[in-house]
């Protein structure tokens, strides 16, 4: 068996184990933890940490010499990731301040779960593991690596509505959002903190302002989000050109990598 086939088999088996472990035990672990801690936030984090174990084991089998922070790209500068994310999402913050009211009642535990906790763990699962592992450690290109992870990322957000039109909008927005977060992750020197903070701040502004009941949004909600995406993209392109750093994602490695990229 070639190394490539072995890699993909272990990767698929590891993610499958995670998927079913999460599907069958996440809510039970969450409920058990809540009974002990009496905190929804603590229970949410605990359930994620425990259900991540199959992914951690998979990465250590695949790449035993690399530490887990490196494999999840959490060993990069946190301030650098936050600065880019905060600057890039200022159009959302300013626009929402102008067009929307702050919600009257805020549950801080729910806010934590829907913003920081969800953003952190979703970026680890989808961008760092499911997309990042394939792109960083195989010859598969950007779109080939990101397709399945982005489809799955979009699918897990479909609980937000029962309306067919809204479901299509939610699927399209979250699928494209996943591709964008993956691109940001790779182009920011594999610093996962950048998409984590982008994800967190976008969720935060959406939650604290009375924008929309789900991610499909409305005209101003999506318009200012689009402005932020443009600003983030422009900042990354500007700094890479200023520092004469080559782009990780090019037309030549959208499907199959024709050259080695930094991992």
From TrEMBL:
GO molecular function: endopeptidase activity; metallopeptidase activity
InterPro entries assigned: Rce1/LyrA-like_dom
Keyword Membrane: yes
GO annotation, biological process: CAAX-box protein maturation; proteolysis
Domain of life assignment: Bacteria
Residues annotated as domain CAAX prenyl protease 2/Lysostaphin resistance protein A-like: 111-204
Keywords from the named record: Hydrolase, Membrane, Metalloprotease, Protease, Transmembrane, Transmembrane helix
Residue spans crossing the bilayer: 6-29, 41-62, 82-99, 111-134, 140-158, 170-186, 219-239
Coiled-coil regions, chain positions: none
Entry protein name: CPBP family intramembrane metalloprotease
Taxonomic source organism: Chryseobacterium panacisoli
Lineage per the UniProt record: Bacteria, Pseudomonadati, Bacteroidota, Flavobacteriia, Flavobacteriales
């Amino acid at each position: 068996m070639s190394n490539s086939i072995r890699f993909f088999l272990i990767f698929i088996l590891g993610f499958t184990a995670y998927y079913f472990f999460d599907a069958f035990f996440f809510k039970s672990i969450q409920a058990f933890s809540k009974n002990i801690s009496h905190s929804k936030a603590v229970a949410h984090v605990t359930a994620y940490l425990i259900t991540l174990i199959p992914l951690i084991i998979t990465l250590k089998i695949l790449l035993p010499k690399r530490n887990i922070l490196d494999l999840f790209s959490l060993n990069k500068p946190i301030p650098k990731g936050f600065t880019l994310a905060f600057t890039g999402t200022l159009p959302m913050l300013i626009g929402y301040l102008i067009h929307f009211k702050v919600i009257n009642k805020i549950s801080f535990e729910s806010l934590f779960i829907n913003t920081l906790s969800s953003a952190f763990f979703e970026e680890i699962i989808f961008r760092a593991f499911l997309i990042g592992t394939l792109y960083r450690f195989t010859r598969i290109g950007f779109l080939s690596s990101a397709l399945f992870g982005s489809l799955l990322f979009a699918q897990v957000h479909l609980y937000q509505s029962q309306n067919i039109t809204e479901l299509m909008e939610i699927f399209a927005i979250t699928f494209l959002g996943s591709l964008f977060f993956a691109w940001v992750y790779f182009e920011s020197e594999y610093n996962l903190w950048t998409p984590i903070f982008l994800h967190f701040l976008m969720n935060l502004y959406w939650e604290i302002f009375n924008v929309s009941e789900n991610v499909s949004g409305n005209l101003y909600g999506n318009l200012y989000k689009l402005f932020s995406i443009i600003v983030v993209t422009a900042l990354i392109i500007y700094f890479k050109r200023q520092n004469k750093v080559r782009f990780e994602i090019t037309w030549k490695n959208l499907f199959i990598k024709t050259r080695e990229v930094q991992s």
